[in-house]
Amino acid sequence: MIKNINHIAIIVPDLEGALAFWEGALGLKVGGREAVPAEGVDVAFLPIGESNVELLKPTVADTGVARFLEKRGPGIHHMCFEVDDIDATMEQLRAHNVQLINEQPQVGHGGRQYAFVHPKSTGGVLVELYQLSDE
Amino acid sequence: MIKNINHIAIIVPDLEGALAFWEGALGLKVGGREAVPAEGVDVAFLPIGESNVELLKPTVADTGVARFLEKRGPGIHHMCFEVDDIDATMEQLRAHNVQLINEQPQVGHGGRQYAFVHPKSTGGVLVELYQLSDE
Predict the structure, then answer these.
(1) Which residue among B10, B13, B27 places its CB closest to the CB of A92?
(2) What is the ipTM, given to two decimal places?
């Protein structure tokens, strides 16, 4: 049901500075970059095995990621699991009294469905679920 | 050179409570549990694809993980990349003026070699490198 870790999302104040470490020093390769104005972020993906390091730079004030950067500084923001059936996973979590941030799957870029699980229910970790569109 | 995300380490106040979410609700399976008195932690691994969720419960005061839990509460502590040649990776990082916490690879359980990279050099993320013993 849970297939893999799709990505680890890291909030950074600027992408170029972050890429100096992740790409320049560590040697990961950038798989893609995009501006996502609807979510107030610029994003860079660096694939690694079946996962990605996802760098998120807030571009708009007062979003969750902008507040995170302001309050806690740069660092890991959330981890995202790819599931084969997001509706079934959400139902299973609800059956265990797990609090969801999104009560219904949201539809994002490329048709992927996603939902966040509240850190209150995971022991302090913001968990995202993905169901990719091509499955 | 970087093969995959070996694990995401999450610090928790108690393993049973954490497993109620990760195993009971989310459905991951525990691959192993062990007490590591030398590092002051009880550990549970939950494999997921080529990676693991690693739950760490501090068992000794005044360690890095115990202080993390006390100051920041439970949550993601570090991410660990498996590399095929830890000496070469560390040399490459030094060549890019990246600050390492361990100047030499440490030898852990099962003969694996590991080293931590300082969050100052990564943009706020504590990064661990692993070279597994069987390679």
Answers:
(1) B27
(2) 0.93
